[in-house]
From TrEMBL:
Pfam families to which the protein is assigned, alphabetical: GDP_Man_Dehyd
Molecular function, one GO term: catalytic activity
PANTHER family reported for this sequence: DTDP-D-GLUCOSE 4,6-DEHYDRATASE-RELATED
Name by which UniProt lists this protein: NAD(P)-binding domain-containing protein
Species of the source: Meloidogyne incognita
Organism taxonomic ancestry: Eukaryota, Metazoa, Ecdysozoa, Nematoda, Chromadorea
Occurrences of domain NAD(P)-binding (ranges): 19-92
Entry-linked InterPro entries: NAD(P)-bd_dom, NAD(P)-bd_dom_sf
Length: 95
């Protein structure tokens, strides 16, 4: 489990660029909505293909409108696009 407590916490974790797959679904969007303010120096890249009950609007509007957030609508099986997303956004963290 990642430590997400106060900044003065000894093992505080604050990654720089994070890839979230399925971030428009129930679990992914709730994770984004929860963690966004806890990691104020992090940028989030959400990759989702929007099937079944996924919706971009599940992610809070303040996040969707932030320059710290990007949503890429594609299938993670598309390795060519996924690789370019990782490189372009300097992603080193995955959830």
């Amino acid at each position: 489990m990642l430590p997400i407590g106060p900044k003065n916490q000894e093992n505080h974790y604050n990654p720089s660029n994070i890839l979230i797959t399925g971030g428009c679904g129930f679990i992914g969007s709730n994770f984004l909505n929860y963690i966004f303010d806890k990691w104020p120096n992090s940028k989030f890249v959400n990759v989702d293909k929007l099937i079944l009950n996924s919706d971009c609007n599940y992610v809070d509007s303040k996040i969707r409108n932030s320059d710290r957030y990007k949503c890429v609508l594609t299938d993670i099986k598309n390795t060519k696009i996924l690789e370019s997303v990782l490189v372009e956004n300097e992603v080193r963290e995955y959830t």
